[in-house]
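Retinal pigment epithelial membrane protein structure dump, as promised
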Amino acid sequence: MATVKTDACIILLAFLCPYVVRSFPGSQPQPPRSTTSIPTSPFAPTKPSCAPLPPHESIFNSDLSPTSKLPGNFDLDTWASLFASLDEDEAVDYWIEDWEGVIPEDLHGTFLTVGPSKYERGGVPIKCWLEGDGAMTAISFNKGKVHVKARFIETKAYLEEKVEDRFLYRGQFGTMKTGRHGWSAFKDSFLKIRLPPINAFDMKFKNPSNTKPLYWGGRLLSTFETALPHELDTQTLETKGEFDFGGLMRPGEAITSADPVLDAILQKKSGHAFTAHPRIDKATKRLLGWSWKTLLPKHFGVPDPRLWRSAKGKKSRTESRGAGLEVTFYEWDEAFDLPFPPVTIRVSDCPSPPHDWVVTPNYYVWMQSAFRLNLLPCVLGLKGPGECMVPVKGEEARAVVHLVPRPGGRHAGKPPVAIEMEPYFMTHWSHAFDVEGDGEEGNKVVGFAAGWDKSLFSPANDDGHMFGHTYRGAPDFSRLPIIRYYRLDVDLERKRASFVAVPSLAKTFLDFPKVHPRFEAEGAPRHVWAMACNDRGVSSPPQGYVHLDLGTGLVESWHAPSSAAALAAARQAPSSSLPSMFASPPLSLSAVDMNRDDTGGELSVEDRTKHIVVGEGVLAPRAACEPGKGDEQEELDSYWMGVEFNALTGRRSLCIFNAADIAAGPLCKLHLQHSLPWGIHSEWAPGLLVAVPEEREQTGNVIRNKDGQKEVEGKEFSKGVAK
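structure tokens r here:
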């Protein structure tokens, strides 16, 4: 029995899913602005000069091409400075008292962001930023008032390591446990070697809970894709513990076998891992997600004795046989009840689950990429599993797209479909939809995602390290492949699948694409927003946002402006066309933040630009928007918001844009008081208000005079009520 447990632990270590580096965007020059592509009011839909083709066709028949090169420029040292630990003893609980512009009064909800926020223990740095302990920041909006609260996610590992002030768990990207008397810190710093004894054969990998926030059914969660999520108190952000979805899942090592006897032996150790990217279907009002377990290697290449269970409880064999992963899909209503039984598939030759997935009304769409795992260094404690992922090279490299019928969909109860294709790797999906056949054409699935193309699997691209390139602990963009925006076409009749880069953004490095929440799991939206870098054709930190109109192929963008001309261009929309609450012109350049250094000296255009980066943006529908209209007006009747990081001044600012015209620049900037690290994912939680103090001591619209001094004007407040 002991031998079986040891073997199971080693296999788990081999297949614990590595973290996919969130390579950050690239960007695309803005097409010439015209009266046909820019709305006349902040929340009016774009009026194209001619009727657009369907969203999944028109952009691929467009002859639009980039017209100019954006002023891409960044500095790796200042970029790395953003990855500094959040103060564990700092109480982050304050009102926004310093802002520019006018805060929209119809924003009601909370901007949530989660990311690694602790980068060292006992003076020993983590090896990769993705391994840092997570912290959540909640920025709540209510009738023009904004309150900020932040707190570390106090996982079991975090609390234990905080007391010991050393690493007690291995990380996914190579951070090792440190010795009781600082021995590992000594040898890492001076001997420059890593001795394996205290890490060898130890499969207790840390769950830092640092990836994505989720608010559903009155519960606030923080996810991490190799373990279960953690639940946080919605009022205090205190950590309640790991969330097991009402007993459906169990913490522990995500392993299983096809043998009931072995499963019984492994029962005490076996647990579940849950995707870091659950989806919300607004049409059905359901939370969608999946758990996974690694299958033991004794079944590699052996036909799967387990059966796929349909929503009706009937059994039929899957097309995916052999060993690799066992994946179970769930749908929860707002009470966290299951309207349908879970659907389980088994996927062969798959060392790790995908980082993200996407949903249509009829299918769960799940990509299996071409990777192998070099197990030995991981087992010996020399590397983390994320460092051991190796892409399959050349003609052997193939990806598989799995389409699993959703319970309640048109194809419910049918076997999953698995289609081989060229080896693309998708980092983040924006959306997908079904295209029903018309007699001549069969049924199809169309999806859009950011990711790497097949060049990632070229024999020429072999540096011996798949993910996790860092520079001073930060993502090293000079060593990361370019991420582009692609369209997936799956022909279900011919069993064919292919990716093609969206032409309007073919040379743009971008990630974290978003659509209106109403269309995340249903329908074919017209508009997509994403985070992007300032240069084309190269990889660099994210320095702006792009907005793509799938109906016309037009792209508009906003980037950290680098000149007075850029500021003037961003402000060309007449203020008379703005509603009264947007009477101030949009902001896009802070004189204090960007024009002068600490001594008051003039900064060059190059210096101003290279110190500004942005975080993932989110779409926040307006409170006044009629729900469920499902048209273009609803898509544009929203705000786009994201955090701007100024590495030169240390300032973090939440920028709020009119989603219909992000090129005009932010409507307002809310300056944060705490040192928010550059994070991973952000979300908008409508209706959620994290508890705030009853009284406000002082607030008001803050503007700056020509000398950079703050002046408070506009409103007086007492106990949070405007006079």
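Residues 1-71, 299-323, 562-601, 697-723 have pLDDT under 50 and may be disordered.
lmk if u need the other ones
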